[in-house]
Amino acid sequence: MRRLVLCGALVLLGSACGSPQQAADTSTLPTAPATTTTPPSGGSVVPVPPTTGAPETPASTRCTASSLAGEVGSVDSGAGNRYAKFVVANNGSAQCTLNGYSGFQLLDGAGQPLPTNLQRTEDPAPVPITLPPGAQAAANLRWTVVATGDEPVEGPCEPEPAKAAAIPPDETQPMTVAWSHGPVCGGGKIEISAFYPA
Prior knowledge:
The chain is mainly beta. It contains three helices and 13 strands. Residues about 1-40 have low confidence and may be disordered. Pfam families: DUF4232.
């Protein structure tokens, strides 16, 4: 009778009634109480999307001759020197990056190379430039029209170029730009800066 009363009490408490061995073998782990969030009066629970970080920017690739158009701008003169800017524009449909110096080879009307002695200057020095479609960059050019060494004083000091082959930084294929600024003396010496935003 005592066992039945005890078993009945255990049933009321939600415990299984069985042998003492079964009760010893059964263990119950405590659980944390459930928590609920009550929205403000009249409100509703709105799910918050996970944070994805900053929006991605389009990847840039190097500017190539096929994505650029170039020209040598107007010329300033002083003390036998000539100054101009070699300007390139991104004619592609995606942004591209320039970082460094352009190659620059003077050519005659038939596309044959003429004496060219390209010298890099660090004014300004190279920095990466991202060009969105339509944006421009420039490099400074300086050359002399004064004959030097054994160049003739009468007449042109060097053959007159008709164009130039310009190779974007870290590329191998050139683009052709017109040259209408006369001979380049000093064996075709041209000082060129790195590209900078124009």
